[in-house]
Amino acid sequence: MMKNFNTVVIGAGPAGMMASIEASKKGTVCIIDSNPTPGRKLLLTGGGRCNVTVSETSRMFLKGIPAHSSFLHSSLHQFSPSDTQTFFQNRGVALKTEHNNAVFPASDKAETILQCIVGEMEKQNIVYQQATVQKVQIKENATFYIVSEQHGNTQIWETNHVILATGGKSYTHTGSTGGGYQIAQQLGHTIVPTEPGLIHLQAKPNYWNDCQGISLSSITLKWCGSKEKHTGDFIFTDNGFSGPVILNMSLEPFRKKELCIDFFPPISDEEWTHSVEDWRALHPTMKVSSWLQQWFPKKMVAVFLSLAEIQDTLPGAEFSKKDQHKLYTLLRGGIVNHVQKGSIEKAMVTLGGVHLKEVNPGTMESKIQPGLFFAGEVLDIAGKTGGYNIQIALSTGFVAGQLKTETKRGEA
Ligand SMILES: Cc1cc2nc3c(=O)[nH]c(=O)nc-3n(C[C@H](O)[C@H](O)[C@H](O)COP(=O)(O)OP(=O)(O)OC[C@H]3O[C@@H](n4cnc5c(N)ncnc54)[C@H](O)[C@@H]3O)c2cc1C
């Protein structure tokens, strides 16, 4: 049996849910998702606490979007990080701001955020349907036919507006399988090749095997050969590196890269020079490993000395100028770490997706198919860790839900 709605939203993540709430102000809405309940990935966010946005102005927010940030100008203007806070606070959700302006529900539960959005969807009589959409077809009279499959049953929806909010293709058990890319392609859109973003880096070889679990705060990293510095918290993992600074560096597309870590501070250049002199003069029998341990954990010291080919028992009296130079160079970013990204399944976001040049940034409408809109991670845009990606989903979802049609049929 064919069902008819003014708008059909495909995907009930934060983008689709926000879009459905806005679209319900213009007519009937059905939201379709493969899961029995909405917001499956949202419940996992922020370690189950949901870092829902960043307490920043829209201008500052754009600095957290490494590529194509200008695409978000208009949507952030229409629904800003501060509008997100007001949306939840007006519906009784207390929020709190933590380190780096990250905003969380005061309850520390992602469920609080989800319940608030779902409560609003229920208030607006939005119909929720569990089904996996296979294809979207367009008929002569500018009507969309949405074909879905659920337990072997085919269902068809007829609508004037489709909002594609199917997310990326990581954590596939949450329903974000990348199926939306094929739907967009069927409708004439280009998909920028996808790859993992906000993902740990694997080091091959991994010199730091024994350092697993050691975390360093405000460390400075660079891609070897590049001048751009990235500073933030860092952790050695079982097979490489993670932590916010690493996750953010993974937002560039690449297969393999060389990573350089500057281990200063905790020690400054002057401290280093004075300390070498004092060690040689005042503690000539102290071993190099003990001397270095005043700044670095024992397991890291072992890696530094092994790569510098310096005996850990070497005393200050025998520490040559050459040793000093070799060790200093390694500590200041001279260790070349060959890295590659972890698998897309474990990525917090998917890079790539629907090509932005084919989407109107002021309306989120397709420039190819009038009445087709996009929202959230299905688009080729991603932000840093810290609440940027849910905000992108909410802002683009809000704008798509306005259903502003500017594209003329046959224009593209
Ligand atoms: C572990 C983890 C932690 C994260 N933490 C944060 C955080 O704290 N803060 C932050 O800002 N971001 C965080 N993110 C990123 C954030 O979750 C996503 O960017 C955001 O959920 C994207 O929203 P979306 O609505 O575009 O897509 P999604 O949330 O992925 O929702 C897409 C929905 O579409 C449905 N769907 C897909 N294809 C079909 C189909 N063919 N038919 C029907 N339904 C379909 C899926 O079932 C899914 O429910 C995190 C991500 C992960 C994986």
Calculate the terminal CA-CA distance, rounded to whole Å.
33 Å
Identify every distinct bound molecule in the structure, by name, code or SMILES.
Answer: flavin-adenine dinucleotide
Q: What is the CATH superfamily classification of the largest domain?
A: FAD/NAD(P)-binding domain
Overall shape? elongated
List the helices and strands and how they pair.
Blueprint (H helix, E strand, L loop, with lengths): L1 E9 L3 H10 L5 E5 L11 H4 L4 E2 L3 H4 L11 H6 L2 H9 L5 E3 L4 E4 L4 H14 L3 E4 L1 E7 L5 E7 L2 E12 L14 H8 L4 E7 L3 E3 L11 E9 L6 E7 L3 E3 L1 H6 L6 E7 L6 H14 L5 H5 L5 H11 L12 H11 L5 E5 L7 E6 L17 E3 L13 H13 L12
Parallel strand pairs: 1-2, 1-9, 2-6, 9-18
Antiparallel strand pairs: 3-5, 4-5, 7-8, 8-9, 10-17, 11-14, 11-16, 12-13, 12-15, 13-14, 15-16
Helix pairs in contact: 1-6, 1-13, 11-12
The structure holds flavin-adenine dinucleotide.
Describe this structure in words.
It is a single chain. The protein has 412 residues and is of the alpha+beta class. It folds into two domains: 2-196 and 349-400, FAD/NAD(P)-binding domain (3-Layer(bba) Sandwich), CATH 3.50.50; 200-342, no CATH class. The chain is built from 13 helices and 18 strands. Strands 1, 2, 6, 7, 8, 9 and 18 form a seven-stranded mixed beta sheet that branches. It is elongated and about 85 Å long. The mean pLDDT is 95. Flavin-adenine dinucleotide binds at residues 10-16, 32-35, 40-42, 44-46, 50-51, 132-133, 165-167, 170-171, 175-177, 179-180, 348-349, 376-377, 387-390, 393.
